[in-house]
Design a protein that fits this description.
The chain has 203 residues and is mostly helical. It contains 10 helices and no strands. The protein has helices at residues 2-13, 17-26, 40-47, 49-73, 81-97, 110-120, 122-139, 142-161, 164-180, 182-190. α4 runs antiparallel to α5 (81-97).
Length: 203
């Protein structure tokens, strides 16, 4: 049951929401537009904020629902269940970042990771989301906010849950998110990163 849950979580995470939406409604592949990323920010640039929010919500649910199902069906075993839930959340995240349907070349995984951690520890993800929003608002760069939120998550989830599996998994997630943002980091350092317009209503 546990292995099946983890495998299914990866498959759910692998659903390329942004690609499906852009191809079906915009007649183009979002990977050929803007930054080439399949996530909500690039969808917003291509199709408007409304569709960006739709992609964001679905990508969050890809992480949230598998972990929630795990919490509902797994027996309550303090030494076992946290590891399975942590691996389930990690599998959904890895599915988004390395989807088999796109040749293992996916998105950056921030929203899906947030969804998984929301199911595990809502307080922790709300604290990390606060860091993301504050940094994004201050800098006008989603990439900077994403990096700050991801790097803050292991600390806040450690403080809130004191649970080793969750701490270890969030460190893995944070490290992968940093690597996936390496081009953004270079552009930020060079002053070439594209800021977001917080006042723009979108399409």
């Amino acid at each position: 049951m546990s292995i099946l849950l983890i495998v299914l979580s990866y498959l759910v995470g692998s659903i390329p929401t942004g690609v499906v939406l852009s191809k079906s409604l915009a007649g183009t592949d979002v990977r050929n537009y803007g930054s080439g990323n399949i996530g909500a920010t690039n969808i917003s640039r291509l199709m408007g904020k409304k569709f960006g929010l739709i992609v964001l919500a679905i990508d969050i649910l890809k992480g949230f629902l598998p972990v929630l199902v795990g919490k509902l069906i797994l027996p309550s075993q303090p030494l076992f269940t946290p590891w399975i839930l942590a691996l389930t959340g990690l599998a959904a995240f890895l599915g988004h970042v390395f989807p088999f349907s796109l040749g293992f070349k996916g998105g950056k995984g921030v929203a899906t990771a947030a969804g998984a951690m929301l199911a595990i520890s809502p307080i922790s993800i709300l604290m990390a989301a606060g860091v993301f929003l504050a940094v994004t608002y201050k800098t006008k760069f989603v990439s900077a906010g994403s990096l700050a939120g991801a790097l803050s998550l292991p600390a806040v989830i450690g403080l809130v849950t004191l649970t080793r599996p969750y701490i270890l998994i969030t460190w893995v997630i944070a490290a992968i998110i940093v690597v996936k943002h390496r081009e953004n980091i270079i552009r930020l350092a060079r002053g070439e990163e594209s800021p977001i317009d917080l006042k723009k209503t979108g399409q």
